[in-house]
Amino acid sequence: MDEKEELHLTSPELQVLSELDSRQFGFLKLRGTEHGRTRALVLKAVKYLEGMLVQVKEEERGCSPVAKRDICIDPKTFCKLGHFHLLLEDYAKAMSAYQKFYALEQDNWKDPLFLYGLGLCYYHYNAFEWATKALQMALYVSPGFSRAADAHLRLALMFKARRHWAAAAVHFRRARLAPHQDATFTRLELSFHAAHLLEARGLRKAARDAYERLLEEPKLSSTLKADVCRQLGWLYHRCVSLGEPAARARAAIWCLQRAVAAEPESGAGLYLLGRCFAAQGKVHDAFIAYRNSVEKSEGNADTWCSIGVLYQQQNQPMDALQAYICAVQLDKGHSAAWTNLGSLYESCQMPRDAFACYTNGGSAATANNAALRQRLAFLKAHLALAPMPSITGKRRQLPSIEEAWNLPISAEMSSRAPKSAPPPYPGKRDELSQHQLHTLHYLQKNSHNLTPQQQALMQQLLSQYRLAQAAKTRAVTKQEGSGSTTGSDTTESLAEDLLKKFSDVQPEIKKEPISSDTNTSNSSGNEAVLCGRQPVVKLEPLKTDPLKPVTFHIGMNSKQILEACKDNAGPATSWSVLGDGCGPPEPPSVPPPRLSPEQLAPPAPFVYVESKREAFSPQLQDFCLKHPIAVVRGLTAALKLDLGLFSTKTLVEAWPDHAVEVRTQLMQSADENWDATGRRRVWACASHRSHTTVRKYAQYQAGSFQESLREERERAAPLSDSDSGPAKRRRAARMLRFGTNVDLSDERKWRPQLAELQKLPAFARVASAANMLSHVGHVILGMNTVQLYMKVPGSRTPGHQENNNFCSINLNIGPGDCEWFGVPDAYWGGVRELCERHGLSYLHGSWWPDPDELRAHGVPVYRFTQRPGDLVWVNAGCVHWVQATGWCNNIAWNVGPLTARQYTLALERYEWNKVQNFKSIVPMVHLTWNLARNIRVSDPRLHRAMRTCLMQTLRAATGTLNTVRARGMPIRFHGRARGEASHYCGACEREVWHALLVREHERRHVVHCLQCARRASPSLQGFLCLEEHHMDELAQVYDAFTLHRPAPLGAHAALPPD
To answer: Which spans of this chain does UniProt mark as TPR repeats (predicted)?
Structure first.
């Protein structure tokens, strides 16, 4: 910028700029002509801010170290600059500015506009892991964020691309619940993506029905109609469960022809139509469809690959070769084209070129193709012994791969992307050798004196060098954004086209903010001028909040808190139950130092109980609380518990029609987990849910045992020809059914069983005054109630932490054993990191860890056997997974010891679940207030954590009521009925306590939190506010909750001195 040039920003311009941030992305189109004046103003502001930053840097260079301290740049300047670059769609500069703000501003996580803009940048670059983290944090900081619908949709699409189906479904549901008046997508587009999620999950019939319902919508746009028809047509083509082949073929052709008619300029529908014609043997129609597809979208490697297949089937090898070459030049990682090209060369007796093509196909081509792997091994062995081909030998039917790469092609194939350097043979690399680099450097220095041959060599070397650099860049990008997907899988990628349309076809709802030219001759007080030394201008709203923030602390009494909240309760971001200014918890890294091999495989803590006195001793509870996981052996015998009350026989006799949830799983050994093909070890643990009754599962359990006895007899007998390999493999791949989550909460049904468990010591009972979960005041199934599990060998409970990190008790009824694995809670971040590495969601996914991989990552793993009668204590936060090794039943429930560690871990997981958009089924706020009413606390750490939560939620309740009153809404007292369940927001699924904002939706009254209610209706029109408690009562509870200091022993006998 010219030093003499002055830039003026007037007050109206500053007002306009102050209103521009990441929320306008997708609405304010600065590339078009409609907002040309706004674009010019944003460019002017960018130039102004960049000039100011350059000027400050120059002054810093010329200043002494002492003077540098007086020169500071407001970090918000970089954040605002990032917003401007984002709106201009200059993502690289936007990312740079956001990263600078992130580095300079310690409390960057409190700014949802920054987090949203940063997430959009990461999303643009397919860095899905980082984009997910940023968008989740934006929604955590501001649940009522005005762009929550867009954030949830992007999160859903990223989770869908990473195959995290459950998490994707959650975000699609929340995007649907969010108001759409300010969304950049329509409800029909959202329904299309939700239907595609059903298809991706394998729910093909449900997906078909959803697509067909969409086609009946009268307001369906032509573009979306084409997308729906393409997906539906391709679904009919490839899914055999949707009807007879002939009917499916007709339906597929009909849908794809409708897609072509709806969007004539797109080549995607024509390509799929060609695939369908080819599958039906209509070669001529397929060629016409493919040719038309190429004319519409030249750069489609899939189309050229399919054209090559048709030519190869028609015995036209040269034309097939040219089509395949077109495909791999457009997409060098197109494994199908490379594999087909290798097959073509092999059919023409050219094994060296076939081997080169198979190898270029990469691991994607051979991963699930055993025949191709065998073929590669054979060719490698054959070529190692074969002599090099002679130039004067027999004439080849096809040119070599390097020759074919540079051959001219026929006119009908000429419209494609320009050629690039030929691919290497196996053993060669894209990188230039040192000699080639020297040659390239020399040729570039003497480029003005080169012969035509030397110029051609220089261009070839330069092109190869650029390819190598691009490959390195792609590798780095892939590592940074592990969630990015390739476009070669047509069945998974067609619906993702709408992702690209986000920035192209979104509705315009923001009008031009500048209506007329502004007089630039205003006084200096109303304008910002860049000339000479000026402070960095904050482009913030001109209206400022006159209220001063109040510092809250747990030493304040209720009156002081309520008085302070009348003036300013603070923003919702300051109402965290962890304390004002505390950021959300993050998964911990694997703690140093590196453990030894012995420490990585620690023995499980066992304790043997031989008498009732030992069972009720405080030492037993202390032992359990000191270890991440522990086995108590002999407890049931010492207490004379009748475990037969929980046997399958007793259950059938008592309530044979009681419901049982069934998980169908693959039988495997406990320390292994294989994919469906049985070729690759994975972490994903697949199971399919269904339901049955106790009687029916008991029959299956008994039948499974009888079958096992029969197999034992067969193994003992001499093998016959019929006991061959295939039969053995069928037995090895056997499926099993695991009866889980049998609810034993009904005291009328299960009175004898529940009464028997009262014999346990207080710290292990289902209901006890020393158990936090007994103070919730209502039932939480499976946590403060008993659940039973009916197992056959191989039944698996996948890896998990208990809900809200509460402790759990598990009793093995027998007669068989269970094998347990456990990881201390300090290492759960390492387990989560490996889950993400395997493409699995830690909270939503189903995973079975590999103990060896965990130990190699520095994570210790306990492993032990639970025998009949053994009680397993799972301490707070311990990651564990279990597999039955025999036929047995187990009973389990959760407990919450009244310790600071248990309460803090539960509260931290409560907050982290908010970040992850995961529902906490333990209402920690409601529980904390009940604990404050019911118990006295003498532990200072527990008292401090609980009082902080009480203070913060009292602030939040008062702030909510103040907001409601400010909008003129009446507040009605609702109270709480005995046993009434805690309430959760119908939109974000967070706990809603004390102030319930209720609105009728589909003939149901749905509770909302304040943020979601304001997002749905800024004036709260249509909502009713219900108050659960009297504020005076809450104030009394808060003031009465003080640190209890028990009198020292013998103090009552002490006498005053004379």
So the answer is: 75-108, 301-334
Residue 972, beta-bridge partner list: 1026
The pair of structure tokens assigned to 1024 is: 């009713």
Residue 418, pLDDT > 50, answer no
Say if residue 762 is exposed, middle or buried (CB neighbours under 10 Å; 0-12, 13-18, 19+): middle
Contact 916, 836 (CB under 8 A): no
Q: SS3 of 664, please?
A: strand
Q: Which residues of 388-401 are buried (b: 16+ CB within 10 A; e: fewer)?
A: eeeeeeeeeebbbb
Pick the CATH number of 562-585+923-1040 from 2.160.10.10, 2.10.110.20, 2.30.110.10, 3.30.310.50: 2.10.110.20
> Distance between CA 257 and CA 276 in Å, rounded?
11
**What is the model's pLDDT at position 523?**
38
What proportions of the chain, in percent to the nearest 5, are helix, strand and coil? 50, 10, 40
β-pairing verdict for 606-608 and 629-633: parallel
- State which fold the 608-709+734-912 domain adopts: Jelly Rolls (2.60.120)
pLDDT at 652: 96
Alpha carbon of residue 58 to chain centroid: 44
Domains 11-153 and 157-383+402-407 share a fold: yes
Residue tagged 């939109």 (tokens): 987
Whole-number Cα distances in Å, 749 to 60, 68, 756, 757, 894: 79, 77, 14, 15, 21
Beta-strand runs (E) in 629-760: 629-633, 659-666, 688-693, 735-743
Q: Which two tokens stand for residue 747?
A: 């005291």
Could you tell me which residues are beta bridge partners of residue 999? 1006
773 CB burial (10 A radius; 0-12, 13-18, 19+): buried
User: What residues does each domain of the chain span?
Assistant: 11-153, 157-383+402-407, 562-585+923-1040, 608-709+734-912
Half-sphere exposure of 648 (CA within 13 A, CB side): 22
Q: With 70 as the cut, is the pLDDT of residue 535 above it?
A: no
Average pLDDT for 827-855: 94
Residues 274, 235 contacting (CB under 8 angstroms): no
What's the pTM value of the predicted model, to 2 decimals? 0.78
Paired tokens of 981: 């369940």
Residue 723 pLDDT more than 70?
A: no
Question: In the predicted model, what is the mean pLDDT of residues 1037-1044?
Answer: 94
In terms of Cα–Cα distance, which of 555, 585, 546, 548 is closest to 570? 548
| 829, amino acid identity | G
Q: 11-153 sits in which CATH class?
A: mainly alpha
Describe the crossing of helices 940-966 and 558-567 by its angle, rounded to 10 degrees: 40
> For residue 331, what is the DSSP state?
-
Work out the number of other CB atoms within 10 angstroms of the CB of residue 590.
17
What fold characterizes domain 157-383+402-407? 1.25.40
- Mean pLDDT is highest, among 259-268, 669-678, 871-880, for 871-880
Buried b (16+ CB within 10 A) or exposed e, 623-632: bbbebbbbbb
What's the chain's average pLDDT? 83
User: Taking the alpha carbons of 124, 130, 131, 137 in that order, is the dihedral positive or negative?
Assistant: negative
Distance CA 515, CA 493 (A): 43
Is residue 538's pLDDT more than 50? no
pLDDT reported for residue 441: 62
Name, in order, each residue with C-beta under 8 angstroms of 120's C-beta and a sequence gap of 6 or more. Answer: 22, 25, 86, 131
Segment 157-184, tens digit of pLDDT: 999 998 899 899 999 988 888 776 668 8
Is residue 257 exposed (0-12), middle (13-18) or buried (19+ Cβ within 10 Å)? middle
Q: Is the pLDDT of residue 847 over 50?
A: yes
Q: Say yes or no to pLDDT of 572 above 90.
A: no
Residues, the chain? 1058
